[in-house]
Known about the structure:
It contains eight helices and twelve strands. It is an alpha/beta fold. A six-stranded mixed beta sheet has the order 6-9-10-3-11-12, with helices on both faces. Strands 2-1-4-5 form a four-stranded antiparallel beta sheet, covered by helices on one side. The radius of gyration is 18 Å and the shape is globular. The two termini are 33 Å apart. The mean pLDDT is 89. Bound molecules: adenosine-5'-diphosphate and magnesium ion (MG). Residues 42-43, 172 line the site of magnesium ion (MG).
Amino acid sequence: MSLVITDLHAQLPDGTEILKGVNLEIPKGEVHTIMGPNGSGKSTLSKVIAGHESYEVTSGSVVMDGEDVLEMEVDERSRAGIFLAFQYPHEVPGVSNANFLRAARQARLPDGEEIDAVAYYKELYAKMDELEMDRKFTARAVNEGFSGGEKKRNEILQMMMLDPTYCLLDETDSGLDIDALKIVAKGVNSMRSPDRGVLLITHYQRLLDYIKPDVVHVMAAGQIVKSGGPELALELEKDGYDFLKTA
Length: 247
Ligand code: ADP
Ligand code: MG
């Protein structure tokens, strides 16, 4: 069981090709990370997997445990088990965090089945405790007036509560402070499971001080150009991406 991306090509509406044949397989039970220079297409890849409307897939496939992801609507992809952090609204005025998460959970249940409110709150509070989140966040509107670190915690809480099969995290935020890094790490590490695959996109080797990936990929110019074990991240930290120029 895995998320398999095969020869994926995607372009902007003006015809500019951004993904130029991406090949990647994330088996359940593994944490993979993608690193690479700015502008190489890392964020685009995660958006295309989630179904972002700005990109047109021109060829290739994304298959999750045998299911064709590219055929699915955006919300279907998320209900099918793909979690992409930024797919979720940044701010939802008037909707409390607890109700937002509850609605998202409800949407994942079979027709006619009701969420067990007592069990739901018990689980929510346990996960909030794990992330050291104050209970007052359950009543606050989603992300409204949250600080950067609070949003990050909330994003990880959403991921933990939705129990996805494949998690895609794009840590683009250059402002991630050490606390935020630790929250991301704690969330990802707690989500490690034989039943789940994780793809972590990051510019920061230091995030990998807290999360040990099984596989490290390097993306450049719209393709995965190199893959290796955790030691590859250390080499990149030391030597940078100069090897790309001679490749
Ligand atoms: P990375 O995340 O690796 O830094 P991106 O996927 O964000 O790279 O971007 C890859 C390239 O595609 C960049 O040159 C970027 O400017 C361009 N690009 C991505 N999305 C858009 C968009 N919606 N409109 C215009 N250019 C885009
Ligand atoms: Mg990016």
